[in-house]
Write a structure and sequence with these properties.
The chain is α/β, with parallel strands linked by helices and 538 residues long. Helices cover 28% and strands 22% of the residues. Helix 1 runs parallel beside helix 13. The protein binds flavin-adenine dinucleotide.
Length: 538
């Protein structure tokens, strides 16, 4: 692992992987067994600041949106805050750590080989997945879900099955996070080079992808190229925002849009790049507790038959200073979106929230957050360039709850949460006399997004879903299979170029995607090695 300032002006490799994230690390480690691999990652190393990845610091790490931090804030045109990972290991460095495989139906629809998929999941699990230690709050939450009707109790399993289960986690029992970057321990050290702080600007093409232009932290540009264009490839693993953005910046995308931004030359008019962007809506309820609660991220999950997933976390800490800076970032970015939030109302509600912190340096939440995530989702949006700087956020619209089926799932999910809050099993973690509806309505007063609040939200769950929607950060799409890439993840119409990451998904896999994103990196790495061997045999 080296800083990109140490990169030569030009170097050759068999595979150039753009983005050392959740999929990219698994892919790079696998390909390096049989070929020379270059990984270009725009962020730094998660090992630079090991305590920032600990469970207790997860909210502060996520909210830290200072320049070059691991979490790059963006706001979708829907008026919902979101984040883009910017660190080796990608989303696995800043996420909730929950690990759960995709269901068999997902694997069948993707036309992946079941046995190979199983082996790829196991390869990931051996390195970085643990069974969580379930303590009091998570146990009460799990028992509450069962009482609310989400049965059977499936115990501890990685599998995606209806009912209530305890899933895996990438946090060990001491609360230390293990990330996709750890998968690089599998790599052949003699055949892999990883450059950090290497921001890729574009892929340069002849008849096939052959060169990648990247900038180091000092603003110096470097090139990397493919040693042999017949068998070698550039692979985009820059995530659901990064991969479609880089395709567009490289001249592959909707011609009229690229021309409007002066992208030159136009390599391929491909109107589907940036389409099919989706983010699973999340609606959450904060539940203050009269009892002390343990620190826990997601452990138990209710997998309902109506396709809403119910998850919870407890006892999180956040710092006054980082929260204040997060909202400064939101106010700074607000002008970038076309969303029409009143800055005055937002500033007031941020001030009220921060006042409740009492300017203590660190606030620990004595209570939990329970949320529902809508599976799919059916509602889709799109991504567009704002400018041609790859470091800047593109403009993204997710169209949350545009499709009635998503809204119906949300309402059913919230009704399950209400039953869970009212369950006997969970009763000691809720103040007596406080109703579930009062807890829900509390969310309407908090600056959890930039959307308007309607008076009907206080009694109409559909309107509540729309007004209080947040992101569960499982956004995907933009380079979807069958639209931008084929079943082998090769970019349609261009040789020597693939996309392998969450941007290729048609919907979010399992309850949470990271297991399948890492699995896909391993699975496709193995597949590419097989294809390479077959080519050489010929
Ligand atoms: C806050 C949060 C909580 C989450 N919680 C969970 C959870 O509990 N469980 C779960 O399963 N999933 C969770 N997820 C989702 C999961 O982490 C993501 O779906 C997954 O990490 C996406 O992987 P990816 O490989 O597609 O992209 P990423 O992991 O984002 O990787 C993309 C990489 O490309 C790099 N990159 C982008 N552009 C460039 C460029 N121009 N040049 C060089 N490098 C570039 C980025 O820096 C990044 O490292 C969460 C995500 C977040 C953000």
């Amino acid at each position: 692992m080296k800083d990109a300032t140490l990169a030569p002006k030009n170097a050759s490799f068999d595979y150039i992987i753009i983005g050392g994230g959740t999929a990219g690390c698994a892919l790079a480690a696998t390909l390096s067994q049989n070929a020379s691999v270059l990984v270009l990652e725009r962020g730094g190393s998660p090992y630079e600041n090991p305590t920032a990845t600990d469970m207790g610091n997860s909210v502060n790490t996520l909210l830290n949106n200072t320049p070059n931090s691991w979490s790059q804030l963006f706001i979708s045109e829907d008026g919902v805050y979101n984040t883009r990972p910017r660190v080796l290991g990608g989303g696995s460095v800043i996420n909730g750590g929950f690990y759960s495989r995709a269901g068999n139906d997902y694997v069948e629809e993707a036309e992946w080989e079941m046995e190979e998929v199983e082996a790829a999941y196991e390869w990931v699990e051996k390195k970085l997945v643990f069974e969580p230690q379930v303590i009091e709050w998570q146990k009460a939450f799990k028992d509450g879900l069962l009482e609310a009707g989400e049965s059977p109790d499936n115990g501890f399993t990685y599998d995606h099955i209806y009912g209530t289960k305890i899933g895996g986690t990438i946090f060990d029992r001491a609360g230390h996070r293990h990330t996709a970057a750890n998968l690089l321990e599998y790599a052949n050290p003699n055949r892999i080079v990883v450059y950090l702080h290497a921001s890729v600007h574009k892929v340069l093409f002849t008849t096939e992808a052959y060169e990648v232009l990247f900038e180091d932290a000092n603003g110096v540009f470097h090139k990397a190229n493919l040693a042999n264009k017949a068998t070698n490839e550039v692979i985009l693993s820059a995530g659901a925002l990064g991969s479609p953005q880089l395709l567009m910046l490289s001249g592959v995308g909707p011609a009229v849009h690229l021309e409007a931004h002066g992208v030159n030359p136009l390599v391929l008019d491909q109107p589907m790049v940036g389409q099919g962007m989706a983010d699973n809506p999340m609606n959450f309820v904060a539940i203050p507790s009269p009892q002390p609660v343990e620190l826990s991220l997601i452990q138990a999950v209710g997998i309902t038959k109506f396709d809403s997933y119910i998850e919870g976390l407890s006892g999180l800490s956040l710092s006054f200073d980082i929260t204040r800076r997060f909202f400064d970032g939101v106010l700074n970015l607000l002008n970038e979106t076309s969303h029409t939030t009143s800055r005055k109302i937002l500033t007031q509600s941020i001030a009220v929230l921060l006042k409740s912190f009492d300017v203590k340096l660190e606030v620990r939440m004595n209570g939990g957050l329970i949320f529902q995530k809508v599976d799919g989702p059916a509602s889709k949006g799109h991504m567009k360039l704002r400018n041609t700087n790859p470091r800047d956020n593109p403009s993204v619209t997710f169209n949350y709850y545009q499709e009635p089926e998503d809204l119906n799932k949300c309402v059913k999910g919230l009704n399950t949460i209400i039953r869970m809050i009212n369950s006997k099993a969970f009763s000691k973690y809720k103040y007596p006399g406080v109703t579930a509806r009062e807890l829900l309505n509390l969310m309407l007063a908090l600056p959890i997004n930039l959307r308007p609040r309607h008076v009907t939200s206080a009694f109409n769950l559909k309107q509540f879903c729309i007004d209080t929607v947040t992101s569960v950060w499982h956004y995907h799409g933009g380079c979807q299979v069958g639209k931008v890439v084929d079943k082998n993840y090769k970019v349609l119409g261009i040789d020597g170029l693939r996309v392998i990451d969450g941007s290729t998904f048609l919907k979010s896999p399992g309850t949470n995607p990271q297991a399948t994103v890492m699995m896909l990196g391993r699975y496709m790495g193995q597949e590419i090695i097989r294809q390479r061997a077959a080519f050489h045999e010929k």
